[in-house]
Structure prediction request, 236 residues.
Amino acid sequence: MGKNLIQQARGKGGPRYRAPSFRYKGECKYVDFNAETLVGKIAEFIDSQGHNAPLAQIKYENGTIALIQAPEGVKVGDIVEMGEKAEVKTGNVMPLKNIPEGISIYNIESFPGDGGKFVKSSGGFAKIITKMQNTIVVEMPSSKRRNFFPECRATIGVIAGSGRKEKPFLKAGTRYYAMKSKNKLWPQVSGTSMNAVDHPFGASRVSKGGPTQSSRNAPPGRKVGKIAPKRTGKLR
Prediction:
């Protein structure tokens, strides 16, 4: 008798692999508005289980309440602005075309109006490298450069909580519950270390003994390793 692999068990949607999203404080995204500039005030800072950075709750003048990743250097009661006429100041949200080059930014939109998709982890920031007529080149925290539309919005500053990775977990149990709170499967075991019933690469004590690529049309459970690779082997 076989049993489901980990990726099959996660896809089934059981309680063991389901994220406790009902305990999350909310989604961090930009609000939509019609005016040129929207002014708001930081009401409080919130610690959310689903985010690794502190969240700032902002109450805007039109009555809208939104959550954003809190930047370093702000406090309760600070005034923040959003829009094309906003000032270049920490915590303000502006289109990329209006942000000077070299300024630290985060929570960058992938497309104008989607609320922010990139650079949302604690301590993260990106920088604008080049501005062109229809493209803004941004250097990501990974040093990779990515092109964005000029109308995409971003927040000025560096996300708070940059020292999160400096504190060690010390115990495996502490790390396990930290990962469980965000629905992260931990620890991740190599497939070659498993039994044959647990993984297609399992049961060999020395090596896999076979190719690690699988077909694009392979069924769930068999689709492991390199998925339909264009080429394999060492690049010479």
